[in-house]
Structure formats: C-alpha cells, structure tokens
Amino acid sequence: MPRTDAPALQRPSTLQWSGLTIGVAGFVATVTFGVPGLDAPGERMLAIFVLAIVLWITEAIPLVATAVLVILLQILLLSEQALIPLEEVPLEARDLLGTLADPVIVLFLGGFMIAQGAGRFDLDRNLAAVLLRPFLGDARRTVLGVMAITALLSMFVSNTATTATMFAVMIPVLGSLPAGRARTGLALAIPVAANIGGIGTPVGSPPNAIALGALSARGEAVSFVGWMMLAVPLMLVVLAAAWWVLTRRYIPPGTPVSLDLTPAFMRTPAAWVFYAIAGGTILLWLTEPFHGLASSTVGFLAVVALLATQVLSADDLRSLQWHVLWLVAGGIALGAGIGATGLDAWLLGLMAWDQLPIPVLVLLLVATGLALSTVISSSAAANLLIPLSLGLAAGVAADPTLLAVVVAIGCALAMALPISTPPNAIAYATGEVPTREMATTGITIGVVGGGLLALAMPWLWTSLGLL
After folding, report:
1. Any idea where the domains of the chain sit in the sequence?
2. What is the distance between the alpha carbons of residues 390 and 340, in angstroms, rounded to a whole number?
C-alpha cells in the first residue's frame, strides 16, 4: 500500500519559474559566449555568480539549495575535477567541500547546540522571567526590559528562537493591553530587538558568520571578543534609539502592565550540567584574548561536552538548523571562488571605485546591504555582497575588515517587511503588527542604524585602534 505521508512537490510560482529560467540562461550564455577581459576560470565563476544572484533573489529553489549548488558547480567547473579541464586550476575540490566544516561553521554549530539546550531546559524562558521583573508596572519600562533581554539573548541564541521564546513569555502582557497601538508597539519591540541584538556577536546572525568566514579565507582573523568590540557599541545605541521610537510612537505614558512571572529553573542533574557547559562556553568566548583558544574550538568543545555527557543526544543534533550552516558554507565557497579566479578584480574594473572616497564607498555598501536584505534573506544578501566588498577593499586600499563588517551589520539591520527576517515573520503572524507599521518602524530604525554604521562607526573604530 503506498504511503500517504510522503512530502508533495510544491508547484513553483511564476516568479520562481522566471528566476530559474533567467538564472540558467545567464549561466549558459556566460559560459558559452565568454566575457571580454576574463579568462576561462573567471568566466565560469561569473556564470556561477550570476546564477546564484538570480536564484537567491527570486528563491526559485530554496536558499540552501542554491548554496550547495554553488559548491557543486565550483567543483565541476573550477577544481581539478572540472568536467572541462582548465590549464590552471584555481580551487581544490577538497577545499571547496571543506567549507561545509569551516571553523566558522563549527563556531555556529556550538551556538546552535547551546540554543537547543536552552530550549530543552527552559533556560531562555526562565532567564527572561527573572530579568523582566524589575521592568514591570509601566508599559514603556516593560518595553525597555523586553528589548534589552531579547537583544541579550539574541547575542548568544538564534534570534528566531529568542523571538519565539519572548512571545511565549509576553503573550499574557499583550492580552492585558488594550487593542491597538500599544499592542502593536510591544509586538514590534521583540523582533526589532532580536534583529539588533543579533549583530552583537559572531554567533548572533548568519551575516556575521559569513563575514568572518570570508575574512578568515583571506587571512584576516577577527576574534569573538574583537567582533563584540566592533558591534556592541552600535548595537546599544541603535537599541536605545529603537526603544525611543517605539515607545513614543505606540506606547502612551503611564500605560499599566501587570504580569505574574514565576521562574521555574530545572534542577535535574542534566540541567545543572547544561548550565555549567553553556556558562563555561560563553565565558571562554568572552575571554579568548586571555586563554588563546579560538572561538571555533570553544564552540566545538561545547558540542563534544554536551554530547559526551548525554545532556543532548543525536536527535538534538539532527534537529539543528543545518540549512543555515550550509547557507553560510555556500557563501564562504562563493567568496573563495570570486577571489581565486580574479573575478573580484574584473568586477572592480567595471567602475572607477578608486575615485570614490572611502566614506562614500562605505555608505554605498551599507545602503545596498539594507536595501537588498529588505526584500531577500539577509544571509543571501551577505553571501552576494561580502565577497564583492573584499574585492573592493583590495582595489581601493581600504581595510577589508571594515568593509566586511559594515556589510554584514548593514544586512542584519534590514527589518522593514515580514519577509526580511524570521523574527519579523513571527511578529507578523501574531496578527498584532500590520505590514505598514512594520515597514514604517523598520525603515526608520534601519536608516538610523545604517547612518550611524556608515558615518560614525568607522571613525570610532579607527580612533580606538580596533581597525
């Protein structure tokens, strides 16, 4: 008897069919007819890049499928295993497959395992309950507490998981508020804070990992604490500005809030072991300059400890967000291919980038990251823009770390539509956040954050000797 639970194939939309057609046609045309000024490896890499751009923007196939397709095509066209051999091989198949276990992927794996355990033992929800207590009573003060706690959790736990957890905690508060703007403001505060908090650490959001991986491939290492020193000051300022905007726009002064929050921390042996491993991992990440263990090694140590102590099992490992890890791996491979084939230099030559002052270039990259990430996944946008920004850095004598970091954070600050980020989608699904209100708030915060990122942070980082 045939099974009835087998997944059904989804029928592609018109946009997806169009994207697939345009992407394949662009790929074939680039490989077949060639491009002036590019040698064979560069032409093949350009064809892969064009295909990736179209597929990521239109989502003709899932984002993760495009990421692994990039790796496969690079192996089949640019490595020693190329179907049509090259005179000079720019990439090794082993290195391309190695992006699936890049140190940045291992770092994110450790973060995902800790997030999995936090959900398993209700640590995130109980921490939120404890930390929210001082902020209850007045709605504006409550929003401040919600945003601060959400941002803090999002620095170390997936911002999607953090958003879901915070909504679970705050549903009674939403129900106690009068229908209308106050509910909208509180519901918006959670995804906004989750998106902003995600920029604070390397494990906070995929664009951060993509930037770190691309920099590492070019010999530019940024430590866990080094990233925090760059990102946390901006995160705090943008978070404060977002709270001011949300409370002044949506929360009337003196709106009362009451909520009975009773934390119930698990006290089983497994829970205590998890608390120790999670706390020790975060402590090691924050003290990397003192002990010298790479953040990826610390993340892998957490994975081993959680599995060896049986606090988490193989089932937990299987349920991780592997598609996110593979998406990051695809971005790392794409960046490696663009650099190894000389495509970055060719793209650089299409415009007189060297005529642009560095501040103007930074502003242009941030604006592009914000705009592109508003309509497609921020991870996909970072995968496309970060390799190009590193190519630009070499051509205009700019600091590659500066350009990679501003692009990653610029992509993460895009939060104007329900499709922009998973936290936005969760908030929209509550029915309390109209699209127009999300767009107005998201654009305002994105412009403020992007302006600070492009115009103030490079000066601050340079003045403090961080770059």
Report:
1. 14-98, 103-318
2. 12
